[in-house]
Amino acid sequence: MGKYKHRVSFRLEKRKDKNGNFPEEMPINADITFGGKRIWYYYGYRIAPAKWDEKAQRVKRNNFNSDDVSASDINQRLIKIASAVDDAFAQLELREEEATPATVREEVKKILDEERCTRLTVCQTYDILIDEREKEIKETPATAQWSKGTLTKHKTMRKHLSGFRATLYFEDINDELLAKFELYLIGKRLSNSYVFKSMKDIKTFLNWATKKGYNRNIKYQSYQQRFHDETTSDTAVNHCALTPEELQSIMTFPTHRQAIDRARDVFVFCCFTGLRFSEVMALKRSNMDGDILDTTAQKTRQRKRIPLAEDAMRILSKYPAAPDEDDPRIFPKISNQKFNSHLKEVGKLAGMTGDWIIETQNGRSRTRTTVKKLLLSDKTF
To answer: Which among 40, 51, 98, 289 could disulfide-bond with 63, CB atoms 3.0 to 4.6 Å apart, if both were Cys?
Structure first.
């Protein structure tokens, strides 16, 4: 083995999280020992413990990790690392350099072309962003940069990227690849509207990765999206709005069920203010300035000062502030799911009739569906 006797083995990094639980997949590390010293070298992949053969120090055959990387690809990488370690010590001996943890690590990196071979994939980097934002929502929800809905959107986009190409790297991204990804989403029968917004989400992620130093390829910035939702320009469809008579019917039908009354009040308040359901549910007494509603839009972060109509003020008067809270929410808490369920009942009791025509576009194909008006949903907001 030459002047520097050494040994390299591979093992999973069995480190628990802050809750004392092991992750579903663990990093595979190279354990390099020499002259009483040790180096841990992460080689870029994770695997579930059940798929790892500790004795053979390899991934079991016919298995894949969560990024769809096969056992054969991962194991081939292990062989390359073991060979690179041998070469690193041989090079240090040839140059008569001292073998230290720092010199060995740098030599191994040089041989393996560290920047190319063990860099993070696009999906692995996306995971870092998602984990950061999810932690913000859990630990500091008041100042979190994303809402739960935005977090869900990006988790879905990460899955789409993985399905498109699990081992995609930033330098692979160009106009041709982004066009193929758009076509991939269209091929999944997703609407043009969804795909258009999704590509914007991808650019948001790439901008973050560039700012943070994970990405140095800015070719994505000039990409022009191919698929647009042409249905929004058709005034005959996709403009679903209640008539004044329908809104009046919703406001006045008699009921003795408190849950239905509350759902109706929230819905009507949304109509009078233009706020989304989630924004209305987040309103606090401190947002009120006489008959002016002073709030900040969740999506745009822009401040809004909304004069309240008499009917909106009447609704607010039904929900007096709790005396034991400094700054209580205006409306009693209700889940989105329950709200939607009660809202359908509101539509029935108000005698909602007729249909709305909804048109969606997938590629060049348009599909029209008919939806009953009584199937009211917070998606309207």
So the answer is: 51
Residues 219-278 have pLDDT tens digits of 898 888 887 665 555 544 545 677 788 888 888 888 888 899 999 999 999 988 888 888
Reading the block at residue 206, the tokens are: 């790439």
Distances (CA, A) of 261 to 67, 237, 242, 317: 48, 31, 19, 14
Q: What is the pLDDT of residues 22-32, one digit of tens each?
A: 888 888 999 99
Task: Note the Cα 128 to chain centre separation in Å.
Answer: 11
- Cβ–Cβ contacts within 10 Å for residue 186, how many? 20
The phi and psi torsions of 8 (rounded to 5 degrees) equal: -130, 130
> 3-state secondary structure string, the chain?
CCCCCEEEEEEECCCCCCCCCCCCCEEEEEEEEECCEEEEEEEEEEECHHHEECCCCEECCCCECCCCCEHHHHHHHHHHHHHHHHHHHHHHHHCCCCCCHHHHHHHHHHHHCHHHHCCCCHHHHHHHHHHHHHHHHHHCHHHCCCCHHHHHHHHHHHHHHHHHCCCCCHHHCCHHHHHHHHHHHHHCCCCHHHHHHHHHHHHHHHHHHHHHCCCCCCHHHHCCCCCCCHHHHCCCCCCCCCCHHHHHHHHHCCCCCHHHHHHHHHHHHHHHHCCCHHHHHCCEHHHEECCEEEEECCCCCCEEEEECCHHHHHHHHCCCCCCCCCCCECCCCCCHHHHHHHHHHHHHHCCCCCEEEEEEEECCEEEEEEEECCCCCHHHC
